[in-house]
Design goal:
Blueprint lengths: L1 H16 L13 E7 L4 H14 L12 E6 L10 H10 L35 H9 L2 E9 L3 H7 L8 H10 L4 E5 L6 H9 L3 E4 L2 H6 L5 E5 L18 H12 L6 E7 L1 H7 L3 H25 L2 E5 L4 E2 L3 E2 L12 H5 L9 H8 L7 H8 L6 H8 L28 H11 L3 E2 L5 E2 L3 E6 L8 E4 H11 L6 H8 L1 E2 H4 L4 E5 L9 E5 L4 E4 L5 E4 L5 E4 L5 E3 L4 E4 L10
Parallel strand pairs: 1-7, 1-8, 2-14, 3-4, 3-7, 4-6, 5-6
Antiparallel strand pairs: 2-13, 8-13, 9-12, 10-11, 15-22, 16-17, 17-18, 18-19, 19-20, 21-22
Helix pairs in contact: 2-11, 3-5, 3-17, 6-7, 9-11, 10-11, 13-16
Length: 564
């Protein structure tokens, strides 16, 4: 009965989202490169294009421009506005999900669910297109990003959790999902156990080692930079951190050696972060860095002839506009008036904030003059000195007060203050420091022209990618096979869940009959077999435990151990 209900719901979703994506006629390819500029509204793209053209008259267009083909309506399962976790989850799994959910089936929200939801499947991990490519077709898989590796978007490709902040669950899942190439931020989040697993399985592991990454000739690699997220491109020390373009080219070079093909996700992570801070120069320059990564992907695809490229944000952010009510007559301003002062900003707000905390207060004006193109007014200096995290303020921290700051300048943090004063020298505006619900752009390249034209839902984009790999309609079946509830898999056996020893630990599932025993821990692909755990079974997928329903989700094939 449950299978019938699930199929009916899948059919409903397919019918509701049908129309724009003619998946039956999509010509399959060997490789997919999915590029996601996180939190990128269309106005951000326009700003980046204008900024680039203003600085270089020979570059009026972005690299993505010839491939723009439509828009995507992106949302969570019960709301038109979503964060990165459920929106990228939908691209990867074909199901919208809830705020904070990482490739996990949503909990029903009756009356608000945008598509029908099966309450019986709540919290079930959902096989992603990346995992399907590995499981069914033995393709290589890679991730490139500038945030820390367990962050929402990369996690959505290769991990499962109803809480995106549980890096202690997500990080080991990503490691044990046996991805071929991972390049991005998060050195401090790779545990000794995870590093040992990678090294013992033939990976080159590089931590803050750009030379090691560049010199390594092996196919399998994890290369991480910075304790958590990497720097904004404008602030980046190129001797220590590679560009997103270089990371993309490196990943493609290794993944393309797999004779079965590959799936690669590249995220321009910090466009979103700059948008949250209302930092136009950070948004613009990180998007341009992303655009150069897109060029690298498209160059490879055209030369290779067997690769499709999809470029799409996961959601909008900040409600940025070129033009603001702060500037009377802004609609008549020249390009010099709109972009002249903006072009003099040489660091992001975060970059300038770090400079301010590194120099004496006497050098504040020279920092702003050199890196922002202006000096602070008396009111702005006062606001700066009242920022709680300004280390060199002449005002003791306990005496700093927002009451002494003009309302338009109060920020709460040094970076936000810097972003506000930098934006005040422009005629750009923001409606929020959070996510927004407008449709996002879609660009694509296909060697035989099977392009997703027009307006799509985020569900349809998943169907398009599945069709590219010849996996139409297979993800649900794979989920049932690899993420089945333990009570279903071991229904005729004795099972016991042993609670974790402490809050940071994980429970253990013990399954046994008179002769055999399995000891199963979550967030790994390794299962101990035998009464003393003397044997080890290596799975093709990871085991996920959900405390909300006290359930282990694991492959149905584990039941075969007791039949031998």
């Amino acid at each position: 009965m449950k299978k019938t209900i699930s199929f009916f719901l899948f059919l409903c979703i397919s019918l509701l989202s049908a129309g724009a994506a003619d998946v039956e006629n999509v010509k399959p390819v060997k490789n997919i490169i999915l590029l996601i500029p996180d939190g990128t509204s269309l106005a951000t793209v326009s700003m980046a294009r204008w900024y680039q053209w203003y600085l270089n008259a020979d570059k009026p267009n972005l690299h993505i421009d010839p491939y723009l083909c439509g828009t995507v309506r992106t949302h969570s399962s019960n709301a038109p506005i979503g964060d990165s976790a459920p929106t990228t989850s939908c691209y990867m799994t074909g199901y919208p999900s809830l705020t904070g959910f990482v490739s996990t089936y949503p909990v029903s929200d009756p009356g608000n669910d945008i598509y029908p939801t099966d309450s019986a499947r709540a919290y079930q991990p959902l096989v992603t297109i990346l995992e399907a490519a590995k499981l069914v077709q033995n393709k290589a898989a890679g991730l490139v990003f500038t945030c820390e590796f367990p962050h929402a978007t990369p996690a959505d490709c290769s991990a499962h959790s109803y809480k995106r902040g549980r890096y202690d669950w997500i990080a080991p899942q990503m490691v044990h999902n046996d991805l071929s190439v991972v390049i991005g931020g998060g050195v401090s989040l790779l545990s000794p156990e995870s590093e040992a697993y990678l090294r013992s399985n033939g990976y080159g592991v590089f931590k803050d080692d750009i030379k090691g990454m560049r010199d390594y000739s092996g196919d399998k690699m994890w290369s991480l930079f910075c304790p958590k997220e990497m720097a904004f491109d404008l602030d980046r020390d190129s001797t220590k951190e590679p560009s997103l373009e270089e990371m993309t080219r490196t990943a493609i070079g290794k993944l393309s050696r797999n004779e079965n093909g590959f799936f690669l996700m590249v995220e321009g992570s910090k466009v979103d972060w700059a948008a949250h801070s209302n930092d136009p120069i950070g948004m613009t320059t990180d998007f341009l860095a992303f655009d150069r990564a897109c060029q690298a992907a498209i160059e490879f695809a055209k030369k290779d002839g067997q690769t499709a490229v999809i470029i799409v944000p996961d959601h909008g952010n900040s409600g940025i506009s070129i033009g603001s009510s702060r500037c009377p007559g802004y609609d008549k301003l020249t390009k010099d008036q709109l972009f002249g002062a903006f072009s003099k900003q040489k660091l992001t707000a975060e970059g300038i904030a770090k400079k301010l905390n590194a120099v004496p207060t006497s050098e504040v004006q020279s920092v702003f003059s050199q890196y922002a193109g202006f000096e602070l007014s008396d009111d702005e200096l006062k606001a700066l000195n009242n920022c709680k995290d300004y280390k060199n303020s002449p005002i003791p921290e306990a005496q700093r007060s927002e009451k002494d700051v003009h309302p338009s300048l109060y920020s709460g943090s040094l970076t936000t203050f810097v972003a506000k004063v930098m934006t005040s020298r422009t005629c750009f505006g923001f409606t929020t420091g959070g996510h927004t619900g407008e449709e996002v752009f879609l660009a694509a390249y296909h060697p035989q022209g099977s392009l997703p034209m027009g307006m799509h839902t985020n569900i349809e984009l998943n169907h398009y990618m599945a069709a590219l790999f010849g996996l139409n309609g297979q993800l649900d079946g794979l989920t049932a096979t690899y993420f089945a509830p333990h009570s279903q898999v071991f229904k005729d056996l004795t099972t016991e869940i042993i609670p974790a020893k402490d809050e940071k630990g994980s429970p253990t599932l013990v399954v046994k009959n008179k002769k055999k025993q399995l000891t199963i821990t979550p967030n790994t692909n390794l299962v101990k077999a035998g009464k003393k755990g003397q044997e080890e079974i290596r799975l093709k997928s990871v085991v996920v435990y959900v405390d909300k329903n006290n359930t282990f989700y694991l492959p149905t094939s584990l039941a075969d151990y007791f039949k031998q």
